[in-house]
C-alpha cells in the first residue's frame, strides 16, 4: 500500500464527506461499509411498493443546505433537487389549533398574533448573521467565531430561553428544541431551537427530490469520479484488518470504534469512550397511505415537518421521562409526508409517511400503534388512510446501524459536556491516540445531522497532519 492511500470505515454522510475530501486531495480512498448499500442515515428503501421509496433514516435537510461542506459541494449543481415547503414545520395542538413556521418570518409572526413581535425579536437578528452562526455551530467548536457580535447575541438568547406568552409560540419553539432529544428546556435545547429555527426562515428545511438517498448518490459519484472504491457488506471488526492503510477514518460511533480498536487503544482513552453516554432512542414507523394526512387544521398539510408533542410542558415532561428510561403516554413524534413538496413520491395516489417517536434508549416496544395514535389525535381519520405500515423499535435500530446505540440516532447524547468532549476530551477531537487513525462520525463535533462537517473536518485534520496538505476545493468539476 502506498503512502497516498486512505481507508474510510462507514458510508454515512460523514464518511462520504471525508472520502470526497480525501479523494479530491489526490489520495486513493477505499470505503468499507457494513451494510449492503451506501448512505448510512441517508438510505432509502421501497418498503411496500417497488415504485415508492421511504427514507429509512433522515428525511429533512436544514443542515445539508446550510453547512459549509455542502454549500461548497453544491448539491443543486450536481442535480439533487431540494424541494422547499412553504411551511418549514408545524405544531398542531388540541382543539384543531396549530402553530406554523412559514419560510416567511412575516407570515409566521402574523399568524402568532400577540407573540409575533417576540418571535421576530428572537429570530430576526440571527438571520442577519446566519452564515457565520451556522459555520460556528457546525464547526469543531474550538475556534473563535467569525462574527463575535452574532455569536454573543445567539449565546444570550440561548441562555435566556424563550419568552413567549401563548401556548402556540411556546410549543412551536419547543418542538424544535426537542431535536436535542432528552433534557430540552436548558441551554442546549434553546441553542438547537435557535439554530434550526432560524434556518427555517432562512436557507430552509428542504426535502431532497426522490428522497435522502439522492444526497448519498451525489457524494458517491464524486468519490468514484476521483478514484475512490467501495467495499460493501464488509463490517470492519478489528483495526488489524486495515493495517495496510497509513490513514484510516472511522465513520463509526464511539462504542463501535471502541470495539474495533479494543486491542490497540490505550486504556485511558478506551475508558473515556466507554463512559460516553447515549440519549433516548428513536422508534420509527413508516406508513403507505391512500390520501394526504387529514390534519384537523388543513394548513398543517402544507408543512414539510410536523412536530407532535402538545404543549411545551408536555414535551419537557415526556423527554425527561424518556431520558430516565420510562416510555410516557404522549411521546414526542416527528412526521413527514414528502408528497407535500415532492409529487414524484406519490404513485397512483399512494404516498409514504415517515414518522418517529422519542422513546427510552433500547426500548423494544413496536412503534406502529403508538405513532399511529399520536397522528390520529391531531388528524382524525388518519388510520383509515393507512394501507401498509412497518415499525423499527429503538432497540432494533442498532442492528440496522451500529452507530445508533439503543436507537440513539445522534450517536451520543448532546449535553454540554458531550458537545465539547465528543467522544473524549482532545484539542483535535477527530484524532485518536493511534497515529493515522481518526474518528469522523456524529460521535465527534458538531454532532448529529446530515451536514458532512465531522467527515470534512476529520479529513482536513488527516490531510494536514499526515500529508501536509490543505483541504481541496469541493466545487463540482
Ligand atoms: C430515524 C432517523 C431520522 C433522522 N432524521 C434526520 C433528518 O431528518 N435530518 C437530519 O439532518 N438528520 C436526521 N437523522 C440523523 C442523521 O441521519 C445522522 O445524524 C447522520 O446520518 C450521521 O451521519 P454519520 O455519517 O455520522 O453516520 P451514519 O449515517 O450513521 O453512518 C454510519 C455508517 O457506518 C457504517 N458502519 C458502522 N460501523 C461499521 C463497521 N464496523 N464497519 C463498516 N461499516 C460500519 C454503518 O452501517 C453506517 O452506514 C435521522 C436519523 C434517523 C435514524
- Specify the CATH architecture of the largest domain: Alpha-Beta Complex
Number of strands: 16
Distance between the termini: 28 Å
Strand order in space, largest sheet: 7-6-12-13-14-11-15
Radius of gyration: 21 Å
Task: List the ligand species.
Answer: flavin-adenine dinucleotide
What's the rounded overall pLDDT mean? 96
**Please, how many helices?**
18
The domain tally reads 2
Structural class of the secondary elements? alpha/beta
Structure description:
By secondary structure, the chain is α/β, with parallel strands linked by helices. It has two domains: 6-59 and 211-278 and 410-467, FAD/NAD(P)-binding domain, CATH 3.50.50.60; 63-207 and 280-400, Polyamine Oxidase, Chain A, domain 2. It has 18 helices and 16 strands. A seven-stranded mixed sheet has the order 7-6-12-13-14-11-15, with helices on both faces. Strands 9-2-1-10-16 form a five-stranded parallel sheet, with helices on one face. Strands 3-4 form a two-stranded antiparallel ribbon. Helix 1 (13-24) packs parallel to helix 10. The longest helix has 15 residues, at 453-467. The radius of gyration is 21 Å and the shape is globular. The two termini are 28 Å apart. 57% of the residues are buried. The structure holds flavin-adenine dinucleotide (FAD). Flavin-adenine dinucleotide (FAD) binds next to helix 1, strand 2, helix 11 and strand 11.
Amino acid at each position: 500500500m502506498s503512502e497516498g492511500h486512505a481507508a474510510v470505515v462507514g458510508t454515512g454522510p460523514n464518511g462520504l464527506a471525508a472520502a470526497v475530501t480525501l479523494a479530491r486531495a489526490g489520495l486513493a480512498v477505499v470505503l468499507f461499509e457494513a451494510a449492503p448499500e451506501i448512505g448510512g442515515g441517508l438510505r432509502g428503501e421501497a418498503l411496500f411498493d417497488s415504485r415508492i421509496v421511504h427514507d429509512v433514516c433522515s428525511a429533512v435537510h436544514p443542515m445539508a443546505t446550510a453547512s459549509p461542506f455542502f454549500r461548497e459541494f453544491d448539491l443543486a449543481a450536481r442535480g439533487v433537487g431540494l424541494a422547499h415547503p412553504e411551511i418549514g414545520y408545524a405544531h398542531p395542538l388540541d382543539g384543531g389549533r396549530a402553530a406554523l413556521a412559514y419560510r416567511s418570518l412575516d407570515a409566521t409572526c402574523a399568524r402568532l398574533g400577540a407573540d409575533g413581535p417576540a418571535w421576530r425579536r428572537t429570530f430576526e437578528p440571527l438571520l442577519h448573521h446566519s452564515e457565520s452562526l451556522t459555520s460556528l455551530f457546525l464547526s469543531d467548536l474550538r475556534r473563535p467565531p467569525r462574527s463575535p457580535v452574532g455569536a454573543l447575541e445567539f449565546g444570550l438568547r440561548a441562555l435566556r430561553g424563550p419568552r413567549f406568552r401563548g401556548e402556540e409560540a411556546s410549543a412551536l419553539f419547543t418542538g424544535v428544541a426537542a431535536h436535542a432529544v432528552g433534557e430540552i428546556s436548558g441551554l442546549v435545547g434553546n441553542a438547537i431551537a435557535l439554530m434550526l429555527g432560524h434556518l427555517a426562515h432562512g436557507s430552509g428545511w428542504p426535502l431532497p427530490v426522490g428522497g435522502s438517498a439522492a444526497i448519498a448518490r451525489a457524494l458517491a459519484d464524486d468519490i468514484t469520479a476521483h478514484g475512490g472504491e467501495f467495499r460493501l457488506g464488509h463490517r470492519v471488526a478489528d483495526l488489524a484488518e486495515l493495517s495496510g492503510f497509513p490513514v484510516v477514518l472511522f465513520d463509526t460511533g464511539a462504542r463501535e470504534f471502541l470495539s474495533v480498536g479494543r486491542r490497540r487503544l490505550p486504556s485511558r482513552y478506551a475508558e473515556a469512550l466507554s463512559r460516553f453516554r447515549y440519549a433516548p432512542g428513536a422508534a420509527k414507523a413508516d406508513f403507505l397511505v391512500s390520501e394526504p394526512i387529514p390534519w384537523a387544521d388543513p394548513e398543517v398539510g402544507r408543512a414539510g415537518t410536523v412536530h407532535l408533542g402538545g404543549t411545551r410542558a408536555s414535551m419537557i415532561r415526556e423527554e425527561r421521562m424518556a431520558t430516565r428510561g420510562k416510555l410516557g403516554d404522549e411521546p414526542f413524534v416527528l412526521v413527514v409526508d414528502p408528497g407535500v413538496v415532492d409529487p414524484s413520491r406519490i404513485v397512483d395516489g399512494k404516498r409514504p409517511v415517515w414518522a418517529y417517536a422519542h422513546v427510552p434508549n433500547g426500548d423494544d416496544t413496536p412503534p406502529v400503534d403508538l405513532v399511529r395514535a399520536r397522528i390520529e389525535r391531531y388528524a382524525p381519520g388518519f388510520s383509515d388512510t393507512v394501507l401498509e405500515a412497518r415499525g423499527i423499535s429503538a432497540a432494533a435500530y442498532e442492528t440496522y446501524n451500529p452507530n445508533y446505540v439503543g436507537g440513539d440516532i445522534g450517536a451520543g447524547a448532546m449535553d454540554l459536556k458531550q458537545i465539547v468532549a465528543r467522544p473524549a476530551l482532545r484539542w483535535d477531537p477527530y484524532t485518536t491516540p493511534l497515529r493515522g487513525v481518526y474518528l469522523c462520525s456524529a460521535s465527534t463535533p458538531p454532532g448529529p445531522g446530515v451536514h458532512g462537517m465531522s467527515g470534512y473536518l476529520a479529513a482536513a485534520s488527516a490531510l494536514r497532519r499526515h500529508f501536509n496538505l490543505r483541504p481541496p476545493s469541493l466545487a463540482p468539476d
